[in-house]
């Protein structure tokens, strides 16, 4: 049985609907590390996600070593500098920002959670994204902030980094999620209304 958190146990917990509407990507964190106990609770929420054919294809890695996070960041920035696949990006302001000496692709967040997929079927990636969303909503409900760092996916799936991190060759990093306490108030942004294609 799972130890399901309830509002009775923590009056600060948000409802699912509140978390959906309040969760936003955060790119400015304090250095306060999230406890192992809390991260394990988030992972338990993650694996409650729907999964095709009950494959449960997800595996997770948590990185809180500051030096290691900085090394991964620098490696990703170097890869972008060397890339010639997207010349328009290379000349862009975004490229200049991402490759700046003082820029950290993880925005100095103290924790990084990798949601990874085992090669068990064509829906493994989709299942892992569902788990990632569960994790981020649960984090929001606990007053924590998150952001998916897609910029890190390519470098984390290289043979060199997989070897260093102990990720098996056949495992694929799907969603690198930074996690922590927001350094400033999260600004709520509006969304466009759902574009309803048809209702038959």
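^ structure tokens above, recovered residues below v
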């Amino acid at each position: 049985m799972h130890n399901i958190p309830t509002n009775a146990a923590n009056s600060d917990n948000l409802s699912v609907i509140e978390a959906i509407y309040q969760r936003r990507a955060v790119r400015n964190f304090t250095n306060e590390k999230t406890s192992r106990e809390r991260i394990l609770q988030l992972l338990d929420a993650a694996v409650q996600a729907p999964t095709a054919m009950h494959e449960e294809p997800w595996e997770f890695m948590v990185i809180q070593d500051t030096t290691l996070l900085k090394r991964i960041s620098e490696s990703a920035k170097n890869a972008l500098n060397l890339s010639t696949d997207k010349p328009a990006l290379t000349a862009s302001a975004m490229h200049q920002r991402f490759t700046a000496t003082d820029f950290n692709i993880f925005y100095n967040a103290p924790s990084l959670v990798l949601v990874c997929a085992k090669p068990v079927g064509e829906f493994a990636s989709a299942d892992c994204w569902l788990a990632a969303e569960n994790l981020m909503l649960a984090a929001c409900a606990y007053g924590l902030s998150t952001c998916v760092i897609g910029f890190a996916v390519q470098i984390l799936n290289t043979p060199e980094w997989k070897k260093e991190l102990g990720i098996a060759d056949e495992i694929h990093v799907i969603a690198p999620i930074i996690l922590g306490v927001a350094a400033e108030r999260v600004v709520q942004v509006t969304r466009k209304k759902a574009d309803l294609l048809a209702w038959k």
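Residues 1-11 have pLDDT under 50 and may be disordered.
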